[in-house]
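Tokens as discussed.
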């Protein structure tokens, strides 16, 4: 009797712990999460003991400052990620105190000394948090692809994000763009659910994640336009005007929800409205939109086209760029065909209109940086996954496998390269370590023409005497050590460097060191 009941109990238990079979019967998704996690989590201690990214200290200092006063007092970035990191730090501090109470500090220090290394441990924790959220963004992309094009579409979308080169690169930093995309992707998923359902819950959840995305980075609020676009596209494409009027209150409720969740993450936007609304300094939120600047229409078109020719080739990989452009071309062809299914046309409009809208919009910024384009990534990735899925109809099985191999090979190589560049020591750290071991050079006078190289020499146990500025053509009296970036090395072309620190698969400049006794 008991033996007969065991399979039933096992099945019931499995169904309870497996949310819609997301993990238990989806080994491919688990594999993609592992691959995506390894690419993002390896190399998180890059640059230590130095911090080379200019924005990382802003996040860590703002998060640590909340223990003294809950208002970070600047709104150039919203505050949700500061608060999340503050709670992370407090939880970690409690765990660290617990280890000390158990007198495990000496033992743990031998294994992982970074735990007691303030403030580097806080940089590491935030990088770990960002990389984890970057990895978990694979899940809403998978669900979105599955909702639109079936399970295989979801797997393709998840696969693309798992190895997307720039997302892998930026996930290694303790900044706000990758965490913003995590919430943004969930807003996209629940907005896509609106295409297939009139449930109020989907509108509310979409609105909630819109607010969380905007409260992480203001650009995340553009996900609200996608929800509105999907709502109108759904009813107008089917000419269901009664349904449009009947459900018109739902986007309004989603908007209220997004405002609530935004204020939950950035409450002082309301409580300190005067600072929040200012535009004359970096303290104000609206300053951020003027800070990026704008260009003329002609320059915007040039930057848009140049992004595909140059920027995206490095950030996405050449195969993903071509796949997206071909996907967009094929989508336009389908949209103008009379006999195509209205449902498919609606899906394609929901992907490619936001994708190009955001890409063109960001191209209008004077400061045209790669991470600004992240808000277009979910639509770009879903568009590519649809196109790759469609190509299967026009090719044989072996040809299709080879096609997928070619498409994914280039971004995989780029992402592995990006991961290795973080895992291997930065050239400036190698310089710092090299000088620390050269006791015979401690009495030599140091010269350098680079502020960042001087910082590498003087910081954290470096030279007690700061390296002096070197002027081109200046005669130096020996004994001296001259440290320069090899790329700027003009007058020393005929002189062989004492040591060259190469930047092959390393971040940082190639460094030439000259020693004169």
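Sequence:
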């Amino acid at each position: 009797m008991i033996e007969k009941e065991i399979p039933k109990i096992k099945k019931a238990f499995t169904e309870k712990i497996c949310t819609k079979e997301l993990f238990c019967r989806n080994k491919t998704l688990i594999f993609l999460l592992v691959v995506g996690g390894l690419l993002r989590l390896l190399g998180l201690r890059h640059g230590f003991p130095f911090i080379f990214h200019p924005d990382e200290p802003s996040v860590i200092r703002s998060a640590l400052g909340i223990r003294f006063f809950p208002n970070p007092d600047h709104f150039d970035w919203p505050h949700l990620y500061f608060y999340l990191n503050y709670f992370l730090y407090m939880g970690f501090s409690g765990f660290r105190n617990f280890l000390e109470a158990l007198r495990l500090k000496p033992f743990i220090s031998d294994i992982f000394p970074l735990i007691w290394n303030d403030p580097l441990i806080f940089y590491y924790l935030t990088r770990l948090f960002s990389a984890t959220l970057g990895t978990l963004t694979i899940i809403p992309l998978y669900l979105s692809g599955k909702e639109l094009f079936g399970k295989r579409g979801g797997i393709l979308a998840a696969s693309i994000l798992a190895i997307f080169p720039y997302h892998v690169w930026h996930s290694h930093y303790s900044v706000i763009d990758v965490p913003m995309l995590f919430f943004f992707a969930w807003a996209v998923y629940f907005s896509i659910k609106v295409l297939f359902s009139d449930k109020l819950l989907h509108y509310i959840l979409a609105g909630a994640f819109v607010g969380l995305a905007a409260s992480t980075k203001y650009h995340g609020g553009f996900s609200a336009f996608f929800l509105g676009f999907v709502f109108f596209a759904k009813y107008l494409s089917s000419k269901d005007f009664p349904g449009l009027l009947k459900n018109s209150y739902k986007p309004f409720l989603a908007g209220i929800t997004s405002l609530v969740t935004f204020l939950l993450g950035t409450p002082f936007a309301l409580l300190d409205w005067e600072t929040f609304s200012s535009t004359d300094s970096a303290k104000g939120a609206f300053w951020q939109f003027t800070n990026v600047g704008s260009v003329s229409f002609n320059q915007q078109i040039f930057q848009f086209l140049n992004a595909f020719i140059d920027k995206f080739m490095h950030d996405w990989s050449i195969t993903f760029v071509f796949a997206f452009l071909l996907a967009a071309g094929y989508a336009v062809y389908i949209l103008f065909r009379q006999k195509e299914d209205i449902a498919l046309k609606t899906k394609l409009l929901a992907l490619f209109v936001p994708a190009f809208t955001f890409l063109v919009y960001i191209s209008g910024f004077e400061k045209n940086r790669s991470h600004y384009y992240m808000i277009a990534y979910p639509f770009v990735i879903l568009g590519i996954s649809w196109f790759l899925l469609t190509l299967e109809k026009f090719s044989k099985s072996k040809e299709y496998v080879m096609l997928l191999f070619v498409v994914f090979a280039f971004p995989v190589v780029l992402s592995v390269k990006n991961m290795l560049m973080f895992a291997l020591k930065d050239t400036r750290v190698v310089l710092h370590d090299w000088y620390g071991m050269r006791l015979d050079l401690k009495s030599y006078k140091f010269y350098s023409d680079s502020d960042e190289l001087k910082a590498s020499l003087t910081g954290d146990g470096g030279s007690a005497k700061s390296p002096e500025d070197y002027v081109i053509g200046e005669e130096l009296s020996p004994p001296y050590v001259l440290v320069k970036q090899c790329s700027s090395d003009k007058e020393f072309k005929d002189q062989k460097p004492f040591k060259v620190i190469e930047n092959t698969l390393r971040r940082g400049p190639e460094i030439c060191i000259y020693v004169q006794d």
